[in-house]
Amino acid sequence: MPASGPVLVIGAGGHALVVIEALRASGRAIAGLLDDGPGAGGLVLGCARLGGTDLLQALRAQGLAEAAVAIGDNATRAALGARCEAAGFTLPALVHPAALVSPSATLGAGCQVMARAVLGPLARLGRLVLVNTGAIVEHECQLGEAAHLGPGAVLCGGVKLGARTLVAAGAVVRPAVTLGADVLVAPGAAVTGPVPDGARLGGVPARPMRSPAPGASDAQKCHG
């Protein structure tokens, strides 16, 4: 992310902490935070909470041009990214300086690649993809819009993730496997075959779950 003007952060929860520190590590100033939850006002890691997302257009009119959506939940991140763009903000990709990114990898608008994450050759990340701390995206993987890899998750070579799919912390997907849209892979699972849209999987090897695994709802909100 080339240095430019200050960045507006959308969200003030746990993932905002990670985004704030990644922005600072990248040499970016932070204009403040917008969050629709309770507790408007106050500071988050020294950054002011300016109010709710109803302020987007006013802040754009004041000259702010870039926003970072600091929300772990995939559908919410996608919706807020669209609202930011509709208000005239650009969504620059954010890559922590401690991440390792292949020069042949491509990142869509609003992607976030956190500390110690790895993107291999020809990896392709769609808009608003989140690759969390220490996660690995191997060669030729393709991640759809607003997909999310939790901390320490691993995609082996040639894996494809559909839009808004979550591979939670510590989970692994074997090479060349395709997962559909809106899939949830529970923490620590091992996915060995193709997965249809909307499936919920857990275990080793991963199997369908009738209800979310313990902690799965928390995983979907990972870091905010």
UniProtKB/TrEMBL annotation:
Keyword Cytoplasm: no
Residue ranges of domain PglD N-terminal in the record: 7-79
Start and end residues of each stretch annotated as Disordered: 201-224
Keywords annotated in UniProt: Acyltransferase, Repeat, Transferase
Lineage top rank: taxon: Bacteria
SUPFAM superfamilies: Trimeric LpxA-like enzymes
PANTHER family: ACETYLTRANSFERASE, UDP-N-ACETYLBACILLOSAMINE N-ACETYLTRANSFERASE
Family per record: Belongs to the transferase hexapeptide repeat family.
Annotated protein name in UniProt: Acetyltransferase
